Amino acid sequence: MSDRREKKENDLNRELRDHLDLETEKQVNAGLPEKEARDAARRDFGNETTVKESTREAWGWSSLERFAQDLRYGLRMIRRNPGFAAVAVLTLALGIGANTAIFSIVNSVFLRPLPYPESNRMFLVGRTGNRIGGISVSLPIFLAWKEKQRLFDSLGLAVYEGNVTLNGNGDPEQVPAYAISQEILPVIKIQPALGRNFQSEEARPGGPKAAILSDTLWRRKYGSDPNIVGQTITINAAQWLVVGVMPALFEFPIPFGRDSQVWLVFQTPASNQNPSNFALCIGRLGPGITTAQAAAVLSEPLTGLHDQYPNMIGANERAHLILMRDFLNRRAGTAPLLLFGAVGFVLLIGCANVANLLLARSTSRQREIAVRAALGASRWRLIRQMLTESVLLAMMSGLAGVLVCVASLKFIIALVPASIPHTGAIQVDANVLGFALLLSLLTGVIFGLVPAVETSGVQLRTRLKEGTAGGGSGRGRGYLRSSLVVAEVALSLVLVIGASLLFQSLFGLLRVNPGFDSHNVLTFGVSLPSKQFDTGSKAIAFLDNFSTNLASLPGVKRVSYASMTPLFAGAPDILYSVEGGDPSFQGKAFDAGFRFINPDYFQTLGIPLVSGRAITSADASGTEPVVLVNETMARAVWPKGNAIGQHIWIGKPMGPASTEPAPRRIVGIVGDINEASLATPPEETMYIPYGQAFGGRNDAVFMIRTAQEPLGLTPAVREVLRGIAPTLPLSTVKSLDDIVAESLTDQRFMTILLTLFGAMALLIATVGVYGVISYSVAQRTHEIGIRVALGASRGRILNMVLGQGLLLAAVGSAVGLVASYWLTKLLSDQLYGVRATDPKTLIGVTIVLLAVAMMACWIPARRATRVDPIVALRYE
Amino acid sequence: MKEKYKDRIELLQGTLDLMILQALRGGPQHGFGISTLIRTRSQEALQVPTGSLYPALHRLETRKWISSSWEMAKDRNREFKFYSLTSAGRKQLTREESKWKQLARAIARMMRPAEEA
After folding, report:
1. Which residues of chain A lie closer than 8 angstroms to B80, CB-CB?
2. Is residue A444 part of a domain?
3. Between chains, do A22 and B32 touch, taking CB under 8 Å as contact?
4. Are the beta carbons of A233 and A200 closer than 8 angstroms?
């Protein structure tokens, strides 16, 4: 009993006692002796208990007390039916837990503001209508834009530096780095936790070299030394002054630069003629300035630049501002939202199931409810009481769901691909908990409302009478239960179809022949400090010497190196012209990817030479410039098959600053390989001998074919390197198989989770079909008994029950197929080698679903055939 | 019902509330005081049974027409539960009063012609 009520009770007792005292006093005053006076007062007072009772009735119940009553009642019902409660809570906890987990991703990616102050003014500034460069810009463009800077609080450049070599304080190592201009930190509005941003003199070409460290690197490599600022460290064999350390958990807002450990000052020149697009421009727009205004102003100088670099900048190029958040989200893609929708389906199926359980149970509570209604409980009161019960169940499930979420989040985060930003921020925060609470409430109302309204609306008289007649569960109710199952089947069909499409895509991708043999290949990177290796020939001499040493290791079959491994996403393209030959080539610019390779590259990776000759060590600097092209390029540019012997001039369309000194002769054609990704067809690619690489190549990726498991070779490789260059570190040691597998993380993320959700949906829906059919068989025992008594065979009874289940599953599948037709289109972007409306998948999954439904009906159907007519008829 | 009509006047539905509100017009009063007031003012014609008085008091309180608090009685050193009119109760009393007067007049008119005829 509530405190409030207890106090009221005490008050009443005291009040009545006072009344009695006063009455007694009056009688005493009138002259009666004490004892008689009291008796008289009692007589006059009447029956005390009756007085109290009728007074209490006048109190009524406050809504809070009624709620407490409902709650007590609900708890009692749950305690009395622990099996039911367990099944319901388990089903819903899985649903709510999965929803909450996916929500925590959606929350960190789409809902929470980027972890930069006023991030709604942070923009990636790029161009539209450009044929080259994508989102990146060149220095001439940036310098032209900088003149319009008044529109921006700050406008800066970020340049991908790949890995840089750190020496000192332990083993030499390679860490990811970005070069950033002085304006970048003001753009993202985050200051170093220690030290300062770059100063103007450091931002000028030729100024002192300054670097800012990440918190992780500072703690790990420099032991959190508070005096690190002002010290000099060795980066790429040069001396850099540490001017700052960024705050903990700071993540650089560029997808490729998220894990940057060092930020080097980018020294912006006053003018520049290099038209290649190598930098990202990001800016903080001034308050009140719209993207349209900014884009209009920044577009003006592009026209002049087009005249200057006609092949690099198109005539119709315009500046274009993308909100940083949108830019990051675009990379995250629709996967989190699609998964969020899918996991919502799972919960809906769970709700339908629990609603059905409640409906089945409420049938056995009909008499109780009818009695309560007869005793004066209003319909609203009954609904509210039943809703309290279901919300109570849902809250218990929500609590369990949060536990499921916390337990599974680690597993899910491990699957999250690199394209989703700020994975470190994925956590169960107040938003997520609030979501879980709201979802639980909503769940309770969704699955509780239908049974509550349905049950409370029973016709009193019929129910009270029917209670004894038994067996007659109304037709309307059966219809409702069937509709819920149909909905369950439909929803799970959609999910299973989606999952199976993704599964086929992933398996298709795993079966893709990438054109190279990725088994037993060890890869790692080295980068040679340009100070020490200041000429191309010095670098190549080192790389070749290293190769020779590696080749003599036991278990090494062949050693090669190149500028990058296959499946390296985001490799740049370059423009070239075709010299001589067909006059139609005159003045035209072609576009192709390029790799620098050493002579052993193709044989190490098992890429065939289709025609012409291979590259040899004789193709070095000073000899005739040559190039190999892949089949796709040969076919695209020289469809007549006369590619070999043609001359191409790399960089010529990009202007004199980027043009190679002489054209190259095509000496051979090699087989196509998937250079960019397994899902995209091979692109036009040129292979240039390392010895003739332009710009000097100090970075190389080694690929070593081994006899056995490749990673086992790593210590021996380190040993060799230490022997010839103790200051050089190995970077990103991986097997080529790992690289192939990592290129599929996006697909794997979606596929594994959707498959999991599809399996959950199928399981819950199967339980749903089973529940409805067994319930119906139990309800129809009497009828089945009569049928058997009248001569129906066992087979006929079996078919009857199975038919009922099949009908439900078939109607559900039909609805689900129509829904799938529309919904799986959302998956189109994620599919490979299979269409969203692939008839084989649609039919196959439907058949599987129907078969599973049949299996679920089999047990109750068998039970129906065993009904003994005598027992059934005597029953009740 | 009819055979219960004897000497004592049965209260009409709702008139008890009216009388309680009227009794409180003079100021806060405890249950016994209200009961005494009704009896003396009606010159012993109306006696409110405790079984009706207290449920009525509590009902009026739930409706917020009266409020209650434990207060020291002036004439003795002891706390009683005193009821007093709220402003809503005062308004209700005015409404009920005029209704009652209309009813009383109507019944009086109804009775008079019978005598005159």
Report:
1. 15, 18
2. yes
3. yes
4. no
